[in-house]
Amino acid sequence: MNTEHRPWRRPFGGYFWPRNLVPDPELTRVGPGTPAGEYLRRYWHPVAMTSELGTAPLPLRILGEDLVLFRDRGGRIGLLHRLCAHRGTSLGYGIPMERGLRCCYHGWTWDADGRCLDTPGEPPQSRLKESVFQGAYPVHELDGLVFAYMGPPAEQPALPIFDITGQPETTVATFSITIDCNWLQTHENGIDPMHAAFLHARPGADSFGSVFAVVPRMDLMETPGGFIVLTTRRWKDKVWTRGSEIVIPNLAHIPMPFETGETERMFGRAAFTRWVVPVDDTHNIFIGWRSFSATLDPLGKGDPARCGKNMIDFPGQEIGRDPVEAQRDPGDIEALVGQGEIAVHAAEHLGTSDRGVQALRRRLRQLVRAVAAGERIKPPESPWADGILPTYGNDTVLRIPPSGGDEGARLDAIARLVHASVVSSTEQPRARRAAWIETRVRDGLSSL
Ligand code: FES
Ligand SMILES: [Fe+2]
User: Fold this and answer.
1) Which is the closest atom of ligand 1 to the Cα of 108?
2) Which residues surround ligand 2, an ion (CB under 5 A)?
3) Among candidates 405, 78, 412, which has minimal Cα distance to 219?
4) What is the pLDDT averaged over residues 218-231?
5) How would residue 2 be classed by pLDDT, with cut points 50, 70 and 90?
6) Whether pLDDT at 1 is above 90
7) Domains and CATH numbers, the chain
8) CA nearest 177: which of 359, 46, 25?
9) Of 19, 349, 17, residue with least CA distance to 7
10) For ligand 1, which residues put their CB under 6 angstroms from it?
11) What residue owns the CA closest to ligand 1's atom 4?
12) CA 107 – ligand 1 centroid, Å
């Protein structure tokens, strides 16, 4: 072993370990004017659940900016810079009016778009309010989440609507969990499905289920909007293949954490859609929709009542746990926060199962640099006339007994067949996707 240039690569090499490795500033810094911060500001992000918004203003911190979200008594929602543009007190103490938010200090009142509606301590003839504005961002409410756009107004895209919204016989619950680490390590967890076989499937722990303990075959597919990471497992006489979809920059459509692999199913859609929204460089919110239906969850293990502020209804996501309990049974939160406030990529040693993580960083870096060079982000294209965007996250369980041949190659071929069917189904009208996938998969299996 040549250790001349890397003397820490040796037994008992702790003394030589490099001490000067630092986080990647290009992808992890999110404040105004930083490369990733500017890039992320080109997208809509959910910043709160509607259920968090009561009669009082809600102080928030998003992308390193202190903000306040409020609903005025007329029903309009606004997202303003936290500190009042008059003399800088917190609008977290503001009073929602019939129109706008009134500062507690001198009564200046700000509309949802930042216009000044009133400066009550100024003389009646004063025109000051015509020239002063509070910093404000556009918001949009959708299915219990409040989305905000914090980028340059001239580059504001339409709020993307995915076909996961409005699924028949499906209800959604919202969740928002604050995690004390950089946004990227939380997001990367979604493109690292290998961890499920270890972190989430330990015997005796509160695990996702026995089938998750099977170390899967993995494959990574690129899509125009991001990636689909495929995991495929043999389970008794079944083959379970799962596609987790990662959408650039910080979104994912992830299938059921309660899959048992026991019952045949086709195109089981994503069970949750989540964004990882930076609060600042060292905190993020894991926020989105949890979907419930009899098709998604035939055993009824999910529970919408356990989704909300800092909670979701599957193992591994609890915050503020007893340290002894967390050490006995760590979950995603412990693994992510355990990487440190901002994971240091330069200290990692990545393997083949980390292909997704590498590809995600590569794609993000290209886009961060493109925005820094003045390019505009191209909005995603829909194959359907109404502009709704297709999603690809899915679980498919097929009864295919072992054949005695090359099992690995067979599992890979099945995964690719299912994946190709799911992707090509967007050429069909939305309501026909599931039937099309079923036909294509069944036809394809007969010739495998
Ligand atoms: S500081 Fe807000 S009105 Fe004066
Ligand atoms: Fe996980």
Assistant:
1) 3
2) 332
3) 412
4) 95
5) low
6) no
7) 45-155 (2.102.10.10), 171-446 (no CATH)
8) 46
9) 17
10) 84, 86-89, 103, 105-108
11) 106
12) 6
